[in-house]
Amino acid sequence: MAAVATAPMTPKLSLKLLIDKERNRVVFAETDKDFVDILFSFLTLPMGSIIRLLGKKTGVGSMDRLYESVAKFDERCFKTPACRAMLLSPRSEAEIRCKGLALELDEESEPWIYYRCLSSRSYCAVSSVFGARCPCGGTTEAPILALGWQGCEGSENGFVRDSVNFIVSDDLVVRPASIGASLALINELGIDDGNVLEKKTVHLNREEVLNLLKRALVSNIPLTDVFLQEPDTIDCAEKLPTKNIIQAREKPKISSDNNLKIPMKLFLSKDTDKVVYAEASEELVDLLFSFLTFPLGSIIKLLGKRSSLGCMDNLYKSVELLSSPNYLISNECKEMLSSPKLAPFFGVDKQLLHIEEAFPLSIKSCACKTCFSFSSATRCLHGHNVSSFNLMNPKLQNSGIERGGGYVKGMGWFLITDEMEVSPLSPITSVHIINKLMVPISGLEEVTASLGEAEALDLLRACLISDEVLSDVFSPNLLRLLQQNWLGFFPCKSDG
Fold first, then answer.
1. How many helices (H) and strands (E) does the chain have?
2. Residue among 275, 273, 271 at smallest CA distance from 451
3. Shared domain check, 141 and 26
4. Does residue 372 sit within a domain?
5. 368-414, pLDDT tens digit by residue?
6. How far, rounded to the nearest angstrom, does the alpha carbon of residue 487 sit from its chain's CA centroid?
7. Are 188 and 137 found together in one domain?
8. Looking at 216-273, which runs of residues are DSSP E strands?
């Protein structure tokens, strides 16, 4: 009898839960390194990768629409063919360290694969991004495999030490496991009768971890949502009072050497005090699109650990709670979680928010053009000699190795809607937007503005929590109050 083929087993991860039966709520989870590493890996994911992994249904403000704008953006408006791919699938500085986790979240990410140009005789072009332009005119499409990663081979994977157990509260505060910490969580929930508590073991696969990521972005009880609630019964996240959050925010300290301002025009509705749309240069579009490349941990740090992203702030603060070398593997791991950098070449020239970009590594490639190494080896696994090559910047037209550059061509002005739909400027499109919102053309007012670091921070915050980003940041109700502080001169509306 012929053997029956069986499907490969899907990796699963066990998790012990303590449950309050009366409230049908998770009190805490007891776990080891594997689950905590996965939770902390959320902080290293760029926002664009999170949106892609969750099928463009994150529920995070206007970020999904910003991502869709990149997908629909006219290819001729990008500086190089690789720019769109960089924004839709941004790489992570921590991708090598996350590759050895118990469950792999991003199956498309291949940190061990780089790309070379097939038509380049000198084999001069090596890129971390598929489809980057080679100096010879071709594109980097042939994959080459890594021989190893210097400093990682034989080292401990992930972020926390293997010998420690942890407890994770329903709102994702991670603590070292102890009787005292467990009793404190029980007391915080007002549980006096131990008979209402029961233990339950659940088994997670990749899909359930992605569901946990999705709920953690919008909910304060993601463990309960994922493991105790039916998907159809989970309430949508309550809309946050965005204007109050933006007005109440503490102004960031603006460095004296950063006087960069990005000009823009706002078209306001006199009747509703809302921004209908904005016109701006490629500098603002680059800034908005770059939000997709920001690692989640860097966003939380920029917003002072008050991101309003579900309970992700708690997860971020847990890194500080576990800063002792007894828990985190190294200071490098702590920095990778609390101040994650942009992947090499993902920064833009006029970035107002100061997220550091990782330095590109020099790689060694072999004569057979099928593998490469970051180590000091002089021969590959096939016995061929290896030579050093620098990674090139996929955003640059000349395929240079210097950092910086932008994603969008400077070909005029672009149209940005209140909901973060971005497109090349089109008078017909602007009329369509006006008609769609049923705004009388005579009821529009044009206002000139300049955008600096404080406004950029407000834009980022509003993109995370609002469906009316421009209105929440630039509403006429705020223009008079903020005129002297950070927007420069605005033509005042007539008192009549």
1. 17, 16
2. 275
3. yes
4. no
5. 555 555 444 555 555 555 666 667 888 887 666 677 789 999 878 89
6. 27
7. yes
8. 262-269
